[in-house]
Amino acid sequence: MKGIILAGGGGTRLRPLTGTLSKQLLPVYNKPMIYYPLAMLMLGGIREIQVISSPQHIPLFRRVLGDGSRLGLEITYAEQAEPQGIAQALTIGAGHIGDSPVALILGDNIFHGPGFSSVLQGSIRHLDGCVLFGYPVSDPRRYGVGEIDEDGLLLSLEEKPERPRSNLAVTGLYLYDNDVVDIAKNIRPSARGELEITDVNKVYLEQRRARLIELGHGFAWLDMGTHDSLLQASQYVQLLEQRQGVRIACIEEIALRMGFIDAEAVYRLGRELGASGYGAYLMEVATHAGAA
Predict the structure, then answer these.
(1) Where are the alpha helices (DSSP H) in 54-179?
(2) Local structure of residue 142 (DSSP, 8 states)
(3) C-alpha angle with apex 18: 4 to 196, nearest 5 degrees?
(4) pLDDT value at residue 286
(5) Distance between CA atoms of residues 14 and 191, nearest Å
(6) What are phi and psi for residue 201, nearest 5 degrees?
(7) According to its UniProt entry, what is the function of this protein (predicted)?
(8) How many angstroms from the chain centroid is the CA of residue 41?
(9) For the segment 186-235, what is each residue's pLDDT rounded down to a tens digit?
(10) 267/145 Cα distance (integer angstroms)
(11) Are 171 and 221 within 8 A, CB to CB?
């Protein structure tokens, strides 16, 4: 499976923070925002990943992530000249996807919860059509909302409904088989001129090949589109890391756990970070894993 991180957009709700910097490079506690969606794709076992962003921001992402080889990944980049909807990522990334299935994740989403890597890997392994992830929210009228049957089959999908049929908001992580490339190419732009991801998902719904997995108790889904939500996400990560002594979305540790790189490589990466607490954590992890 290939991976795509959509890290475009103007970040208008976060200005002036995003006057010169991409939203997805802003810090979320102790690491750049893009580490969090990248970590999700890595936990799914995905190693070929494309980052889609605006032309002026791609050089910054290259400086942060490089070509991915230090993590045992292959990271490429593609330009989104103008943001025209989430589904545009599937047309921009068509060459990257090739004849593979794809996981598309938004660059400003955090997912965290026990066993999520197993859920994600199982969904990828048994993918037939599309898999979405739903999160219960108090005001579903603000979101795309999915209704499912007892087996998780998607029954309806509405964007910001006045009378929601459920409280399950569709999150920014989408798994698709290779049919999605043709589906995305053939959907019509909305009245705003955008390629809506809901329209892509509705094609799978009509084919009865769309499933939605509910992320229930113990899971957190955070969408960092405003100053308040960005601060809340940082506080959430800080609290868990300080109380539990682990790092959320530590991409070097995940690369080690997934077998993409060895302990010696993790130790070198930690040492390169100097006296930072993040670097010290990496060296400790590597030492426990057998680094000399």
Answers:
(1) 58-65, 88-92, 94-97, 116-125
(2) G
(3) 40
(4) 96
(5) 25
(6) -65, -30
(7) Catalyzes the formation of dTDP-glucose, from dTTP and glucose 1-phosphate, as well as its pyrophosphorolysis.
(8) 7
(9) 999 988 888 999 999 999 999 999 999 999 888 999 988 788 888 898 99
(10) 44
(11) yes
Rounded-to-integer distance, Cα 190 and Cα 193, Å: 5
d(CA 23, CA 233): 14
Q: Which residue did the predictor score with more confidence, 157 or 191?
A: 157
Residue-wise pLDDT for 101-125, tens only, equals: 999 999 999 999 888 999 999 999 9
Distance CA 147, CA 168 (A): 7
Q: Which of 130, 128, 127 is nearest to 176 (CA)?
A: 130
Parallel, antiparallel, or unpaired for β 154-159 and 102-106? unpaired
Q: Provide the pLDDT for residue 8.
A: 79
Residue 249 tokens read as 């979305």
Residue 231 to residue 155: CA distance in whole angstroms? 35
Residue 22: per-residue pLDDT: 80
User: Does residue 16 have a cis bond before it (omega within 30 degrees)?
Assistant: yes
Domain 2-242: which topology? Spore Coat Polysaccharide Biosynthesis Protein SpsA; Chain A (3.90.550)
Residue 90 to residue 95: CA distance in whole angstroms: 9
CA distance 208 to 269: 46
Structure-block tokens of residue 74: 């292959």
Question: Residue 130 and residue 106: Cα distance in Å, rounded?
Answer: 16
Give the tens place of pLDDT for each residue, 142-155. 899 999 999 999 99
Q: C-alpha 84: how far from its chain's center? A: 18
**Could you tell me which residues are beta bridge partners of residue 48?**
2, 74
Domain positions in the chain are: 2-242
Task: Please provide residue 72's backbone torsions phi and psi, each rounded to the nearest 5 degrees.
Answer: 75, 25
Supply 277's token pair: 């607490």
